[in-house]
Amino acid sequence: MKQILFLLAILPLFWSCSDDNDTKKPQVEIITPADGDHYHPGETISLQVLFEDNKELASYKIEIHYNGDGHNHKSASNSQAAFEYSKTYNFEKGLNRYELLYEIVIPTFINELPVKEGEYHLGIHCFDKAGNEREVYVEIEIEAEMDV
């Protein structure tokens, strides 16, 4: 009889724990830039991102990397340097919605070489407090400076 009473006493604890189990990924919407936007070295990328989670946001990462995986089949050049960007930030505790406004300046030179032209991926990674992750990417193009 004591075993049955013990089981009846602890069963609600298991049910309440399962309600707290957050398996839903946060939502991420890149408002700007749009997929396919074009930029030139020295210009600023205005980033606007909306983050939402059903419980609590934890952190996000902004990254930009060259899309040098063979899509355009051009030979690599040692006379240009690929632009790479990576920064991670934590959200304030308790937030479940946040709108990010952020600016990234595209350098004109990296290690004394001009920035490599071509397609780049701009990615946003978002983690919620439970560790669920969402990744969203847009493709941008960096073109040579226009002659004026």
Topology diagram in text:
Blueprint: H1 2-20, E1 27-32, E2 38-39, E3 44-52, E4 57-66, E5 85-90, E6 97-105, E7 109-110, E8 113-114, E9 118-128, E10 133-142
Parallel strand pairs: 2-10
Antiparallel strand pairs: 1-3, 3-6, 4-5, 4-9, 7-8, 9-10
Task: Please explain how this structure is put together.
- The chain has a five-stranded mixed sheet with strand order 2-10-9-4-5, with no helix packed on it. A three-stranded antiparallel sheet has the order 1-3-6, with no helix packed on it. A two-stranded antiparallel ribbon has the order 7-8.
- 13% of the residues are buried.
- It is mainly beta and 148 residues long.
- Residues 13-19 and 71-75 have low confidence and may be disordered.
- The chain starts with a helix and ends in a 6-residue tail after the last strand.
- The chain has one domain (26-142): Immunoglobulin-like.
- The chain has one helix and ten strands.
- It is elongated and about 55 Å long.
What would a concise description of this structure say?
It contains one helix and ten strands.
Radius of gyration: 22 Å
What is the strand tally? 10
What string, H for helix and E for strand, traces the elements in order? HEEEEEEEEEE
Overall mean pLDDT: 86
> What's the end-to-end separation, in Å?
89 Å
Q: State the share of residues found in helices, binned by percent.
A: 10-25%
Q: For the largest beta sheet, what order do the strands appear in spatially?
A: 2-10-9-4-5
Which structural class best describes the helix and strand composition?
mainly beta
The gross shape turns out to be elongated
For the biggest sheet, the summary is: 5 strands, mixed
Our count of domains comes out at 1
